[in-house]
Amino acid sequence: MTEDRKERQRDMYRAPDPAEGPLTTDQGVAVDHTDDSLTVGERGPTLMEDFHFREKLTHFDHERIPERVVHARGAGAYGYFEPYESCAEFTRAAFLQDPSVRTPVFVRFSTVQGPRGSADTVRDVRGFATKFYTSEGNYDLVGNNMPVFFIQDGIKFPDFVHALKPEPQNDIPTGASAHDTLWDFVSLQPETMHMMMWLMSDRAIPRSYRMMQGFGVHTFRFVDAQGRGTFVKFHWKPKLGVHSLVWDEAQECQGRDPDFNRRDLWEAIEAGQYPEYELGVQLIPEEDEFNFDVDLLDATKIIPEEQVPVRPIGHMVLNRNPDNFFAETEQVAFHTANVVPGIDFTNDPLLQARNFSYLDTQLIRLGGPNFAQLPVNQPVTPARTNQRDGYHQSMIHKGTNYSPNSLGGGCPALAGADGYAFSHYAERVEGHKIRKRSESFKDFYSQAALFWNSMSDWERRHIVDAFRFELGKVGAVHVRERTVGQLAQVDYDLASQVAQGIGVALPEPGANNHKPQASPALSLDNLQGDGSIRTRQIAVLVMDGVDTGQLTQAQEALTAQGAIVEALAPHDGKVLGADGNGYAVDRALPTVASVLYDAVLLPGGPTGTPGLASDPDAMRFVRDAYRHGKPIAALGSGVGILSSLDPEGLHIASGHGHVCTDRGVVTDTTTGTASEEFTQAFTEAIAAHRHWDRPRVRC
């Protein structure tokens, strides 16, 4: 394992523990009193000469920097990246050459629309930005959890964000897309249709940042040592699979725990359950650029994996939380133009705009041109520039600051012709200066139809429900009607279901000629991950009389597989087990909810635990878990609690010693030990994440 150069660099900037010395001013002057201002007498005016008071208040007044216009709500972590093998055949990038070399990384996940104080689980795109601290300088892969974007040309970005953000007259809604201005824009801009299909799917409400894909969105270029280019699209794939929340529970999470995703990431890393992602690439030889139905420069399109498979080239592990949220997660500055030798751009008009916009944004947010000197943004390789002065200059420069020079010995000198320096890809370009979009960008609906065709039945139901909710919040009826008209160009059945739900007339069938194509790789059904139950949160509902032996056995079996098991009871403290001993409760039921867990276990006991059936919090917990498709297991008398819900048509164990599994519900009426068969069946149900073909409960 190689040394983590980024971690060593961070050590240089860590402030000492305050316990190691007295409180001082910013100038290092010791302070013996910080609770009262310097005044004229006990009740007199404060004196201007109280430098400690003035410094303390001034710093406090300036503690907040402007938040990001988009991606303001975020969470971050450090880690490392390792390639699987040398990628020299298509790129000269040094960090993609040697499997024994670990490249430090910092990753920031985020929502897009809401401010810093908004909730994690809103329906929104999620940012997935990775800063690689490579031996050749910083490389930023600034992407999202969806492989496409709303617009094709960056000149429309201000219009799109203005429409997406809270409406100007009342600053409503916060962190949400269900409002008039966004859908007005969308209904008038048909290039948004593909992205809107993704946004209305469950991809927009991820279960966890650890269970979320990432994409570079654009087509980039790899460049090898001989200067040959290869088009490339980047994919991050989580080892735990790609999983989402249900819209109903996502809304409840906003009240129960607005930091749901942020907390999940932090606690997993603190517990040593490090998130892992595989980096894959789609590679397209330059001579094949025009061999597709879509334009590779169009950021609203994908290349289906069935046409160009994703080639795994390395993996990333996030293993350290930041020491200070503001200094690191808030001040980290990503930029699509931060590239290293071997990685270059294409003429994607959205990417070209981002290459301008990101730098411009950092200058205003971080107070000037020296933001690269902040520890989280510093490269691990030495930075030698002739840039000087400016706001927040923290370096004490000596010598010359121009090039060429002789007084400074010609330093810093230009890199030699040995291939070390960055060299832009020599692409031939010519043409007139015009404002016109290529005709190859004009297909707005076929890939939206591809996405719809690729969804399973339950995913389609959720998409329809999402459109109905979002458009149901739109007050302008003509905007509803126009949007449904756009959906008719994608799929008439989809448009009809949405129209019926929002009370507008059925549209005329769209005059589309889409090919009946589908891409199985787009469905969450096919992105289950490694089949493990690592880090899944399992709630065990207990009360007095529980069989603690049976419970402990099941808990140990699940924990051994990496699951996190918590005992919940109607009250905090302990419950009295059937053996007369107390069993510690992790949380009281009134403080939590089913939406915060992935599965539920209902243990039994010799005297039974039917009291849970009369506890409204417990029964709501089980009922919600059931209707949200979550795995549920019941042992012994715990089966009776589940039966009290009267699930229509669900098979539940009735005979002694018989394990019954039906659509993610595992039951066994056996008292005493939890069998290996029971534990295995429950494990498989948890690994499947959700079970959408479940019948309804009658109660």
Automatic annotation (TrEMBL):
Keywords: Heme, Hydrogen peroxide, Iron, Metal-binding, Oxidoreductase, Peroxidase. Its EC number is 1.11.1.6. Residues 24-411 form the Catalase core domain. It comes from the Bacteria. The keyword Heme applies. Residues 1-14 have a biased composition (Basic and acidic residues). GO terms for molecular function: catalase activity. Residues 1-43 are annotated as: Disordered. It is an enzyme of class 1 (oxidoreductase). It catalyses: 2 H2O2 = O2 + 2 H2O. Its cofactor is heme. The keyword Metal-binding applies. PANTHER family: CATALASE, CATALASE-B. Decomposes hydrogen peroxide into water and oxygen; serves to protect cells from the toxic effects of hydrogen peroxide. This is Catalase.
